[in-house]
Design goal:
The protein is α/β, with parallel strands linked by helices and 396 residues long. It has helices spanning 8-18, 58-71, 79-83, 86-99, 110-121, 136-145, 157-169, 192-201, 224-227, 256-265, 267-270, 278-293, 296-314, 334-346, 376-392, and strands at residues 35-38, 41-45, 103-107, 127-131, 148-152, 175-180, 205-209, 236-240, 250-254, 326-332, 349-350, 352-354, 364-369. The longest helix has 19 residues, at 296-314. The protein is globular and about 55 Å long. 50% of the residues are buried. The structure holds 4'-deoxy-4'-aminopyridoxal-5'-phosphate.
Length: 396
C-alpha cells in the first residue's frame, strides 16, 4: 500500500487492537427474532432493541409490502420538496395521538431527530443542562448548536438544579434541560419529576429522549413522561421507530409551533432527500396498531426482564442500576468482557460487548435487552450459558 495522508489510521487502529477496543460487526443472516442466526451460528439474541418482537411480525411485513407495491421503494425527495406522503402525515397524526401532544415530526432516525433540534432552537447565547450519560446524538446536537453545555452528574436532581442556576447566573437567553428517559447503557429511568420541577423553577424548557422508553414504559408504552404523569410539562419528546416498534425512523413530539418551526429549520431533516420510505412508514403504523391492540406484549416484556435480571443477580453478576428490560452485565475490564462475549457466542448466546469510549474505561459490560418474545426456556438457556461461561473466563 502506498503512503498517504490517512496513514495515521494504521497506528490508531493498531492501538485500538492493542487495547482490545476494536468492534467487529457481526452479520445477521436471518430475520431479527429472539432466536436468529449471526455469523453463521444459531443464537439466542439479547442484542436487538426488538423489545416487543415486532421487527419480523407478519402483519407489519404485510403492511410494508403493500406500501412498497403501491408507492414504490422510495420517494427520492426531501419531504419539504415532493417526498411527503399522506402516509407520513398519517403516521405523525397517529404518533401525536399516542403521545398526547399537539403535533409530531417524523424524521429518518432518532439520531437525526435529536441532532437537528438544538441547532434549530438555540445558539451561542443559550445554555443546555444535560445529564452526563445522555445519548451521543444529544451531545452532538448540543455541540452543533453552540449553546453552552452544563453537564450534571448522572440522574442527580440536586446537581441538575445547581447547573440550572449556574446557567441562569451566566445570563443565558434560553435554557434547555435534556435527559434520556431510559438510559441506553444502564437501563435506569431518569428522575423526571424532580428534573422537570427544577427546570420549571429555572424557566428552562424540558426535553426528554425516550428512544428506549416508547413501547416499553408508561400507559400502553407511551413513554417516561406518561409513566410519571408529567403530560404537558415536557416541551420536547423524541422517540424512535427503530427499537420497540422494530423498524426505523424517529420522531419529535410537542406543540404545533415547535413542529411548524422544525419543519422550517431542522437542517438534518430539511437538507436530506433520504425520507422514511413508504414501506417503513406503513410498517411503523402497523407496529403502532399492534402496540395498542396487544398490551399483553408489554406486560410479558417486564415479566421476562424481571426474571432475567434476578437470574443474573443470583449468579453473582452486577446488573448496575437497571430497572427496565435493558440490562447491563457489568464486568469492568474490557478484555474479560470480550472474552465473556466470545464464550457466550460459542455457547449460542449473543450480547453486545460495550467498552470505552461508549462507557467509562473501567465499566465495560455486556448490554442485554430482553424481548417479550423470549420464552422463559430461552432465558433459562441464556442463564445457564452465563453461569458456565462466566466461570470459565473468571467473570463471576
Ligand atoms: N436516543 C437514544 C437514547 C438511543 O438509545 C438511540 C439509539 N441508540 C437514539 C437516540 C437514536 O435513535 P435511532 O436508532 O432511531 O437513530
Amino acid at each position: 500500500m502506498t503512503s498517504g495522508p490517512l496513514d495515521f489510521l494504521t497506528d490508531s487502529l493498531a492501538k485500538l487492537e492493542d487495547d482490545r477496543l476494536v468492534m467487529d460487526w457481526p452479520t445477521l443472516e436471518a430475520p431479527q427474532e429472539p432466536r436468529t442466526v449471526l455469523n453463521g451460528r444459531p443464537v439466542i439474541n439479547l442484542a436487538a432493541n426488538n423489545y416487543l418482537g415486532l421487527a419480523n411480525h407478519p402483519a407489519v411485513k404485510l403492511a410494508a409490502a403493500k406500501a412498497l407495491d403501491r408507492y414504490g421503494a422510495g420517494v427520492a425527495s426531501a419531504r419539504n420538496a415532493c417526498g411527503n406522503l399522506a402516509l407520513h402525515d398519517e403516521l405523525e397524526a397517529r404518533l401525536a395521538a399516542f403521545k398526547g401532544v399537539e403535533a409530531v415530526l417524523v424524521t429518518q432516525t432518532g439520531y437525526v431527530a435529536n441532532v437537528g433540534i438544538f441547532p434549530a432552537l438555540l445558539g451561542e447565547h443559550d445554555a443546555i443542562v444535560s445529564d452526563a450519560l445522555n445519548h451521543a446524538s444529544l451531545i452532538d446536537s448540543a455541540r452543533m448548536s453552540r449553546a453552552k453545555v452544563h453537564v450534571y452528574a448522572h440522574g442527580e436532581v440536586a446537581d441538575a438544579e445547581a447547573k440550572l442556576k449556574e446557567a441562569k447566573a451566566s445570563g443565558a437567553r434560553r435554557i434547555a434541560l435534556v435527559t434520556d428517559g431510559i438510559f441506553s447503557m444502564d437501563g435506569d429511568i431518569a428522575p423526571l419529576p424532580g428534573l422537570i420541577k427544577a427546570a420549571e423553577a429555572a424557566g428552562a424548557f424540558a426535553y426528554v429522549d425516550d428512544a428506549h422508553a416508547v413501547g416499553v414504559i408508561g400507559k400502553g408504552g407511551r413513554g417516561t413522561v406518561d409513566h410519571f404523569g408529567l403530560e404537558g410539562r415536557v416541551a420536547i419528546q423524541v422517540g424512535t421507530l427503530s427499537k420497540a416498534l422494530g423498524i426505523m425512523g424517529g420522531y419529535i413530539a410537542g406543540s404545533r409551533d415547535l413542529i411548524r418551526w422544525l419543519e422550517q429549520r431542522h437542517r438534518a431533516q430539511f437538507f436530506s432527500a433520504s425520507t422514511l420510505t413508504p414501506a417503513d412508514t406503513a410498517a411503523a403504523l402497523k407496529a403502532l396498531d399492534i402496540v395498542e391492540a396487544e398490551p399483553e406484549r408489554i406486560a410479558r416484556l417486564w415479566a421476562r426482564a424481571d426474571y432475567f435480571r434476578e437470574g443474573l443477580k443470583s449468579l453473582g453478576y452486577d446488573t448496575g442500576v437497571s430497572e427496565t428490560p435493558l440490562i447491563p452485565v457489568i464486568i469492568g475490564d474490557a478484555a474479560k468482557t470480550k472474552a465473556l462475549r466470545n464464550a457466550l457466542m460459542e455457547a449460542g448466546v449473543f450480547a453486545v460487548a460495550v467498552t470505552y469510549p461508549i462507557v467509562a474505561e473501567d465499566a465495560s459490560r455486556l448490554r442485554t435487552i430482553v424481548s417479550s418474545e423470549h420464552t422463559e426456556a430461552d432465558l433459562d438457556e441464556v442463564l445457564d450459558a452465563f453461569a458456565r461461561c462466566g466461570k470459565s473466563v473468571g467473570a463471576i
